[in-house]
Design a protein that fits this description.
The protein is mainly β. The protein has one helix at residues 356-362; strands at 7-14, 20-26, 36-41, 55-60, 65-70, 76-83, 90-96, 108-115, 131-133, 139-147, 154-162, 172-176, 180-182, 187-190, 192-200, 206-213, 223-229, 239-245, 254-259, 265-271, 281-286, 298-301, 310-316, 322-327, 333-338, 348-354, 371-385, 391-407, 410-429.
Length: 433
């Protein structure tokens, strides 16, 4: 996307006609204007490799990430997350457009909430899946807050929702759905979440998967949790939860959630390192009933090599069949799918979609003269399926070069450092195998 400019943090959606909608940001320092961009390419997707078919609009900034969703009528909605120039807070902006969306004047944004979060320190390399529309096209998102600057303190996982008039911040509700312990005045214990992913049942009930740092007073263990609310979601007492999987001990685990037409949740988990052989592997979790009980969940190791599964994105096709996009340990984009019997690893199929060597060959990057080698570091894939179930994927590519330095005070002190030279969003579209 825009190969002459540094771009990053992409998200993608496909409308009913097969048109591709992509949101991303300019990958530049705050002082240079990391603006949010909305881009559109009309069908067929096979022609979207032609840059001239894309139209785009600058939505302003600064932003750190952009998430995109389409209403049932195909109208784009955006959650833009960015820094506050004057405080330590992160600002959450909701944007919508109903017509002529390639004109900046057609977009309107509202500041929904300000968040102070110290949990997701590795979020730069992880995708954002916290924003979604319910089946009626109404916006919702989830986030973690560790705001001790506000009184009373705002700690925990929160669910933000709006039913109508969503360009008015007063029409949004924000509800904590994790537990806390207070006496008459003070917050004694609290919980936190990281990397939340949000989806909905066919009748609009929210379902979330996230890592939970459980409060000691609950007696629960830390891990990957499934959260569900069936009614009255503005009351934290109506949120139920179940531990579903182990996180692992590294910096970049990830998970994603989808719900089929029978409202059965499915979760993909890339578990980080463990002392045994089960870490740094990709798993598929499923539950058919009573999913607020940990014992109702089953998990299958997909049998892939270690380091296959980074940033996994799970989607279900129209028949409820799971499809996953993810990175492997060599920075290649991979794709896995299953058509039946998906609780057994042998029924899954796997393929490589985009090699890092292809990226190197198709998009050579000029290095400074003091840099002798470089490589593409890829991450954060976002997967969308068209009406026929064909995958469309965007992801981040960061080109890093090894550069040599000499200490001017000691010419014998020669050392190397890696620097990011370029950053780009890459789009891959192909027919379902």
């Amino acid at each position: 996307m825009e190969p002459q400019l540094k771009t990053g943090s992409p998200d993608i959606a496909v409308d009913s006609a097969g048109g591709l909608h992509v949101a991303y940001r300019y990958h530049v320092p705050v002082a240079e204007g990391p603006d949010a961009i909305y881009a559109y390419c009309p069908p067929p997707a096979s022609q979207c490799s032609d840059q001239s078919r894309w139209q785009r609009v600058n939505l302003g900034g600064p932003v750190d990430s952009v998430q995109l969703a389409l209403t049932p009528a195909g109208k784009p909605r955006i959650l833009a997350i960015g820094p506050d120039d004057e405080t330590l807070y992160t600002l959450y902006w909701y944007g919508e457009c109903d017509a002529q969306c390639l004109s900046a004047d057609s977009w309107q944004f509202v500041h929904v909430t300000s968040v102070y979060d110290t949990i997701d320190l590795t979020g730069y390399y992880l995708p954002e899946r916290s924003f979604a529309l319910d089946p009626q096209g109404r916006p919702r998102f989830v986030f973690n807050n560790t705001d001790y600057l506000t009184e009373p303190d705002l700690y925990g996982g929160y669910y933000a929702a709006c039913d109508s008039g969503c360009l008015d911040a007063g029409n949004w509700s924000v509800t904590r759905f994790t537990h806390q312990l207070m006496d008459d005045i003070y917050l004694l214990d609290h919980e936190a979440i990281s990397s939340p992913s949000l989806t909905f049942t066919t009748d609009g009930r929210p379902r979330v998967v996230a890592h939970l740092f459980a409060a000691e007073f609950t007696g629960d263990e830390n891990g990957v949790y499934y959260f569900a609310c069936d009614a009255g979601c503005e009351d934290d007492a109506n949120w139920k939860r179940a531990w579903v999987f182990e996180r692992g001990g590294g910096p970049y685990p990830f998970w994603d959630i989808a719900v089929d037409k029978q409202n059965r949740p499915r979760i993909a988990v890339y578990k980080e390192g463990t002392l045994d052989d089960t870490g740094r592997r990709l798993y598929y979790l499923s539950c058919d009933a009573q999913c607020e009980s940990s014992g109702s969940w089953s998990a299958v190791n997909l049998g892939l090599p270690q380091q296959y599964g980074d940033g996994v994105d799970l989607e279900l096709d129209a028949q409820g069949r799971p499809r996953m996009a993810y990175m492997d340990g060599s920075d290649n984009l991979r794709y896995s799918w299953c058509d039946a019997g998906c609780t057994a690893a042998e029924n899954w199929q796997h393929g490589v979609v985009d090699l890092s060597s292809d990226l190197e060959a198709e998009y050579p990057v000029a290095r400074p003269v003091t840099c002798d080698a470089g490589l593409w570091d890829t991450y954060a894939p976002a997967l969308a399926l068209d009406a026929q179930g064909n995958p469309r994927i965007v992801y981040d590519g960061s080109y890093k070069a090894r550069c040599q330095y000499v200490d001017p005070n000691d010419p014998t002190d020669v050392y190397d450092r890696f620097h990011e030279i370029w950053h780009s969003v890459r789009l891959v579209a192909f027919a379902q195998p």
